[in-house]
Amino acid sequence: MKRILIVDDSPIIHNLLRKVLERNDYEVCGDAKNGKEGVELYEELKPDLVFMDITMPVMEGIDAAKIIKEKDPNAKIIMLSAMGDEAIMNEAKSIGVDIFLKKPFDDYKIVSAIAKIV
Amino acid sequence: MNPTLTKPFMESAQNMIYQMAAVQLDAEGDFQEQQGDISSYGVTALITFAGALKGRLLIDLEPTLASEIVEKVMGESFESMKDPTFMGMIGELSNIVGGDALTNLNNQQPLNLRLASPAVFLGKDMIISIPKIKSSTINMKSDVGNMRINVAFEKGGQA
Amino acid sequence: MNDQLETYNKAFSMAVNDVMSTMTGFEMEEDINYKGKLCCGSDADPQPCEISGAMILMGKNTGMATITMTRQTAAMIVSYMTGIPYYELEDNDLYDGIAELMNLIAGRAKALLRETDYYFEITPPFTIIGKNHQVVHKKQTHLLQKRFITSDLSFILRVFHVK
After folding, report:
1. Which among A12, A19, A86 has CB closest to B92?
2. What SS3 class is residue A91?
3. Does C42 touch chain B (CB under 8 A)?
4. How would you label C31-48 residue by residue, b for 16+ Cβ within 10 Å and e otherwise?
5. Do the chains contact at C139 and A58, CB–CB below 8 Å?
6. Rounded CA gap, A34 and A6, in Å?
7. Does any domain span residue C127?
């Protein structure tokens, strides 16, 4: 079973995403509520995949994804954000984010994205 | 107010709420300048944004519509709208609608708009008064309740 | 508590005291017995929330500040601020006055928080009116709430902030 780390400051998104992942046979191995916690949990848990929000307190998702990718170039990261303009998407792409998804999401959107990279 | 600035908010509300909860919202006419205070339907989310322009989005929902959306998205019902999950979901809704609208605006013009985090207000017979700022409102209808969107840009959207 | 957090905790109290003293002549004191509630109380609450002045704070740390009070308290404060007798105040005077009070408090706090991570940009203030309305700020990780009193009136300050 693939192990997934969720990094998002919204408890609602954690709750919704966890439900989608679990009913599709993925294991949520960790929940982080900001980018800094996400980086720390990534190092500790070594998940197969990370779902990362962008706008978060303490450390934003783009910065956290950059750190994770620098430490582990094979890390798989899906950015999940309410914003998805070209400037943000290009920035995410430039640091090696694998897939960029815009909220809202459903099972199909999440499962298809995971299938592409894991 | 310039319709190219306001229309994306109406379209995003329609699209996002339909995607999330399969609720069809129909606009009643066009955006009109808001005269006076806003008498809330009962559940209101307010989110500000900034970039080349500053502004805010206010989404005001009838409790029946808010409950329908939250129940459809969360897959559970809530005894009270005061439940933090209920209010959190309304905040998330405004984040997603606002995020989609700003995405479209940013792709049309180099505005580099970014969202702040939303606030949610709940109350019976609540009035929201925003002095000194011109804003525009559009009313929207659905089978399960009404909603209004109020958009304001500082200096009327002139950069 | 680190220095910046201490400055932040004090800044809004100082701002309330400075603004109230200058604009209304009331010398406010912090109610040290106030335990605080996230939401306003029930209809039976001895001090129901009827009017809130509010402002979204934007910056490295975003959040929202509110001042919440009864209609009677709001009328008294705005009357002292404007010189208009409270019985002649119209609804709009009251709503604008409380929004302006929030604006002044946030502006003063902002000046006190310069050079700290809690520095923010002010945004247009607004007023929420309704008996026992509730306010929730998403992504709130830190809530500062204080009750300010004089012998004549009291109100509650809340600052919802992302650390």
Report:
1. A12
2. helix
3. no
4. eeeeeeeeebeeeeeeeb
5. no
6. 10
7. yes
Distance CA A72, CA A39 (A): 11
Q: What is the pLDDT of residues B58-75, one digit of tens each?
A: 999 999 999 999 999 999
Name chain C contacts of A9, Cβ cutoff 8 Å. Answer: 139
Cβ-based contacts of B16 with chain A (< 8 Å): 104
Q: What is the pLDDT of residue B44?
A: 95
Chain C neighbours (≥3 Cβ pairs under 8 A) are A, B
Distance from CA of B152 to the nearest CA of C (A): 10
Record the pTM.
0.86
Task: ipTM value, please give it.
Answer: 0.88
Contacts of C160 in chain B (CB under 8 A): 119
Confidence of residue B159 (pLDDT cuts 50, 70, 90): low
- Interchain pair B119, C160: CB under 8 A: yes
- Whether the per-residue pLDDT at B125 is higher than 90: the answer is no
Domains and CATH numbers, chain B: 3-157 (3.40.1550.10)
Helix (H, G, I), strand (E, B) or coil at A110: helix
Range of the domain at C74: 3-31+46-161
* Token output for C104: 């002044």
Q: What is the CATH number of the domain that holds C9?
A: 3.40.1550.10
| CATH hierarchy code of domain A3-111 | 3.40.50.2300
Scanning the structure block, which residue is given the tokens 């080349």? B52
In chain A the first and final C-alpha atoms are separated, in Å, by 11
